[in-house]
Amino acid sequence: MWLLLSALALADEYWVEAAPFLDRAAAADFETGAISAGYPARIVRRFQLGEGWQYMVLVEHFTDEASAMKAAERLGEGMAAVSFAVMRLDDGKKTKTERPAPAQATASARSMSAQQWLDRATEAHGGVRGGVVALAHAEVVHFVFERTVPYNGKDMTVRHDYWRQGGFRRVSVTPTGAGHPSVLVANQSGAWVAAEGKVEVRDIGVTLNAADELAPEAVLAVVLDLPGLFAGAGVEQFSFLEGADSGVRIGRGADSDEPALSFVDLDTNTGRVLGARYVTDAGPILFEMSDYAELAPGVWMPRKTTLRRADGRVETLVVKELALLSTPPADTFNKPSL
Q1: Domain 108-325 class, CATH top level
Q2: CATH number for the 2-96 domain, one of 3.30.70.1070, 3.30.200.120, 3.40.30.10, 3.40.50.970?
Q3: 216: helix, coil or strand?
Q4: Which of 89, 142, 194, 286 could be a cystine partner for 183, CB 3.0 to 4.6 Å?
């Protein structure tokens, strides 16, 4: 078992695991079927006390929950006699992740109206007192996330560390590879930006606006402000749509060009948002969310969000931390020094 867990620890975070086979030939048939479907698979043998050798087939190399779920659904369609689980490593321990209902389960999904699904989604994300409302009532907000964007033909990851207390702000931006780290601070005495060996005075109003573009409410408004989003013009006409990879899709149309929310994909088990399309002045943005957690009381957020923009750019947001505190560390909002 130790060797098995050691091998798993070297794999990507998510994988699909079939129920154990007692016969290696049966496991080999499944492995062949998975490979034929385009998925990398391998057989792992383990000894089960009292039962002898068992053969596990692992389908690996999934970096996010959504793609692993999609693979499990596809494998399940072609191999109905085999049961599957989507697994992940959590602090070195193997845990099973929640598996959403398949997209074909629309009959039971439509036992609720589109509006009832939107109401359920609001409750699943903390209700009217959760999300942006919970953040607004917090004395101190600390939000850390990484954004991976294309830059000069390569992916560049930038770490953002955001602090807020009343009218005070502190944001540090740390790129990997190209670029220079910077720190922005606003307090009762003024506002500054420290970058490339210099500290410069800035307009406090402009600085606050720039800092709050990196606040959780701005970065992930599509899940943190569902009551506001669902109160938008035309949402009362939302209906069921086809096209959800999993769960249920509700909206005005998958190709709508009206600047507003086009649709949301909801997990039929939890009611949380798996995907969305929002049209901005710069064109539509497709959001894909996975790995949800209640990172602060009443604040449910996906740890990973992929944004697909109209110009072809693909960005990935990975939330590292969200904390609602009563007080910050003593020197958080001090003027930056070199």
Answers
A1: mainly beta
A2: 3.30.70.1070
A3: helix
A4: 194
